[in-house]
Amino acid sequence: MRLPHGAGDGRAAPAQAGRHGAGDGREVLAGAGPGDGRPVFPSPRETGGPPGAGRGTATPVDAGAAAGAGASLGQGFAVPAPHGVRGVRPVVLKGAEVTVAHGGPRAARAAETSPRPASRWVREPTPPRPVARYLPPPAPECVLTRDGTYAARLTLAADGESWLPERWALGGPEPYVVPLPGNQPEEPDAEVQPMSDGRVLIHRTAGLRHTFSLLYPTGPGTGELSVGSVECPDGESLRLLPPAPDGRRAYAVAVSPGGSTAVWLVAGGSCGPEHLGEVRGHCSGGVWLDHEGRMLALDRAAGGRTKTVVVDLARGCEVSPLLQISAESDDRLVTADPDSGLLLIRSDAPSPGRHRLGWGVLGSTLPVRFPEGLCPAECVMTPFAVQPGQVLTPEACSVALRVDGVGGSWIGLWRPADRRVTHVAAPAGWLIGAGRFDAGGELRLPYAAGEEPCGLATVLAPPADVADSASVPVRPVPLQQSPLATV
Q1: First CA to last CA distance, the chain
Q2: pLDDT in 10s for each residue of the chain, 487 residues
């Protein structure tokens, strides 16, 4: 027990190989639409369900039997109905590199030219799905608030041995850094997160107890305000989630070996850490889907597969499905932009045995696309910033990618409407994985190099390719009008 301390039918249809989508990559269609077989990304503004239903407990989602075919792409943001899940259609893969037939090798046997007669009493075993090893994305070297005003990181002190927190102020005309040394050196596994008021939350671990404090400069020294602690059982890990949209609160998740995940409000509550609820399954990731800090997307591992679910923090951590491309795939949400609805997804659905980066639109009926440009064989791309303010124009959003290859790390710039990624050299001393777009499309990258301990480089996004943009049939649906699957 954790103690706070201080202030369709049920059968999957065979996948079908089809044409490529507009020449820009692969398509994966999930038939979760309201009868037309098209995928649906539900809107966070259309959360349904009776008030108080399942309040205080997580609602489990059975991706197999309960969902019928396991073929929904975002049929959540609604409280599951008491009589099960309806309106689920089989999944169809179009243009996949490897076609997986969920119903067994019947299609392969039909095309077999061997004269050996087939026996109705003999069933050939279904070939096993290749095991796709998933490596979590590397953590950025500093954490930014949602508006990019402040940043925080843990860095080596002048002696080169001890660690201390730093607060970076990036919202003024000239960026500057403020060291926040405490009474003793910090451990290298401590987590820091900036708040919108300029303070820095630090998460320390002492045995089974996780303590949280707010650090702030006080003249030559550092002030520290304890906000409480959480005691976790042996074997349970606790980590901070990405900064909340409002910048006033901070959240954490604690994953137990028994297969459940607890969600905590660790800063910004009324009296110390507050336990908000439990989510069944081992959860990783963490992406905010709205500007209010209510809808949180987590990648939940259950039943041998990983699917993204939505956790409603205002309704006792109620859970609803968000992303399920196929019943046999691992589907994770990497990042999301609440303004345009653009989603960046990593999945092995189009290429079993290989996790690929794709994109979709929240509230749209279009398929998830996996462009070849986002899946190079010689390097790994991880999105870390999306251009805000592009309301209902996800294809025009600039996306910044951290590119890790043999030669190190650099910047990739891409739009959904473009067919290629523009590669840009990172500034010297770039805090790898950190950066933010402004509404005009300028990418701001914090760096520390040589005699400049705090700098902010600007990279301009390349102009949109008009020809490529016109060839991509993107039809975003307003969030208030997006169709929802019946759950």
Answers
A1: 32
A2: 455 554 444 443 333 333 333 344 444 433 333 334 333 344 443 334 333 333 333 333 333 333 333 333 444 443 333 332 222 222 222 333 332 333 333 333 333 333 344 434 444 555 566 656 788 888 899 999 999 999 999 999 888 888 999 999 999 889 999 999 988 899 999 999 999 999 999 999 998 999 999 999 998 889 999 999 999 988 899 999 999 999 999 999 999 988 899 999 999 998 899 999 999 999 999 999 999 999 999 999 988 899 999 999 999 999 999 988 988 999 999 999 999 999 999 999 998 888 999 999 997 878 899 999 999 988 999 999 999 999 989 999 999 999 999 889 999 999 999 889 999 999 999 999 999 999 888 999 999 998 899 999 999 877 766 444 333 333 343 433 333 333 2
Both structure tokens of 217: 């400069």
Global confidence as pTM: 0.72
List the beta bridge partners of residue 241: none
Q: What is the C-alpha to C-alpha distance for residues 161 and 184, in angstroms, rounded to an integer?
A: 12
CB within 8 A of 486, min separation 6: which ones?
Answer: 34, 81, 85, 86, 87
